[in-house]
Write a structure and sequence with these properties.
Length: about 450
């Protein structure tokens, strides 16, 4: 009964979805591509028996890229179907395609659209990256005998509470999955409580990402040529930039008025680097900084020789986070200063950049705690505290280097998940020969 009501609501919302796609498409034209695919209507023919990988957005697609690389290493002739939910995810996913692969939007979760999707592509198995479990999709795959799995699976306490409130929908969906491979033991326990049968705890794919060495080297070269330290606000989210700019203005006014009360207030000037999480907000954030009285230089206008002089640099480019982390002496973790759950700090650690994070890291709770335990990250209560601590770290070379060492150890100690996930997935389906189950290494365990 509950799923029937859910299906009716999803069907009734389709006109609203079309309007939403048109609105989003004004800022991000990728949303206007293949709109009918969102409703299970696909124009291009598709060969059956591809391995289907669903990565909803940019972060999940980058994680999926690591899994795809490991899958192709084990099965070079494997054909893939990649599906997404956002324009940035689809654009990133296009870079993973090889001849014989296919790419499409995952349809809106109505029974008819899901059936059309599965009938058109007829995948041999499916793997959802991290969190994307849809009730009708899960049930349709189970009914058709398509093994649907959840890899790199995570579930926060907040998401578990939501799943409990909607148990009549979420519990059958999780139970319909053929396998669930969790990132951590804590995720595994929450997933079990949500109704999933957890097959193993294999780690986090994102630890296997290696930063682009050329970008990282360029950022470090720019940093080495500077006198003042660089502090980055990495992957900032809406609401956080306004508070960040307010803190900077307050500090500047106090310093100009001779009202500094702490030694850290009297440090040499800091070069601020602000990198918004969402590209559609680049213009807005640059305008906010200028309106707050700061001079602004956007990455898109930099010469390659060196960044120009400005109060705040705006990182308004895609795919250059290693450059920004290489350039920064320390980074503030976006999404952690509002109740947003925090952004991924693993990339910062892989680049050897110390992190100051706020109180809200529930999206990556275990990784944040582990980074803090390794000395790679520091937790504070507010953005004002974060700015003060970041200044202190940037000015203290021994402390900064100790945090860099901790970051490298934290990142290196968690690698290897991609191969474990690939082994487990190919053992389940889409493999020409039977394979052994994934065997955990140190730091991974069966559940």
């Amino acid at each position: 009964m509950m799923r029937a009501l859910y299906s009716l609501a999803m069907a009734a919302a389709q006109p609203l979805l079309r309007r939403k796609l048109r609105r989003r498409g004004r800022d991000e034209p990728g949303y206007l591509e293949g709109i009918e695919e969102r409703f299970g209507i696909y124009a291009a023919p598709a060969a059956p028996n591809a391995l289907w990988v669903h990565a909803v957005s940019l972060g999940e697609t980058r994680a999926a890229a690591l899994l795809v690389e490991a899958l192709r290493a084990r099965e070079p002739g494997l054909r893939l179907l990649l599906t997404h939910g956002t324009a940035t995810g689809r654009a990133e996913g296009a870079r993973l395609l090889q001849p014989g692969d296919a790419q499409a939007w995952l349809p809106w979760d109505t029974p008819a659209a899901v059936e059309r999707f599965l009938e058109h592509f007829r995948p041999c198995a499916g793997v959802l990256i991290e969190t994307e479990v849809w009730p009708n999709l899960a049930q349709a795959c189970a009914r058709r005998g398509v093994p649907l799995t959840l890899a790199n699976a995570r579930l926060s306490e907040a998401s578990l509470r939501k799943a409990r409130r909607l148990a009549a929908l979420s519990q059958p969906a999780y139970a319909a999955l053929a396998a669930v491979w969790a990132q951590t033991e804590a995720d595994a326990q929450r997933l079990r409580e949500a109704g999933a049968r957890v097959s193993g705890v294999l780690g986090n794919l994102k630890f296997d990402a290696r930063p682009d060495p050329a970008l990282l080297a360029q950022g470090r070269a720019w940093r080495a040529g500077r006198e003042s330290p660089v502090v980055m606000f990495a992957s900032s989210r809406e609401g956080e930039e306004a508070e960040f700019l307010r803190v900077l203005r307050t500090d500047r006014e106090r310093l100009r008025g001779g009202q500094a009360r702490r030694a850290t207030d009297l440090m040499a000037p800091v070069q601020w680097l602000l990198v918004p999480r969402h590209p559609q907000r680049f213009d807005e954030v640059a305008s906010m900084a200028a309106a707050a009285g700061f001079t602004v230089a956007r990455r898109s206008a930099w010469a390659q020789e060196s960044p120009p002089a400005a109060d705040i640099w705006i990182g308004d480019s895609l795919g250059e986070m290693p450059l920004y982390y290489g350039l920064a002496d320390v980074a503030l973790l976006g999404g952690s200063f509002e109740r947003l759950g925090g952004q991924n700090l693993i990339e910062a650690a892989a680049c050897g950049c110390p992190v100051v994070m706020g109180p809200h890291t529930f999206n990556f709770a275990e990784a944040a705690a582990a980074a803090e335990g390794r000395g790679a990250a520091l937790r504070v209560r507010s953005l004002a505290d974060a700015v003060r601590e970041a200044r202190a770290i940037a000015a203290d070379a021994p402390r900064r280097e100790a945090m860099r060492t901790g970051a490298a150890a934290f990142a290196e100690g968690h690698r290897g998940a991609a191969d474990r996930f690939a082994q487990a997935l190919l053992a389940l389906a889409c493999s020409p020969a039977p394979r052994a189950e994934a065997s955990p290494r140190s730091g991974a365990s069966t559940a």
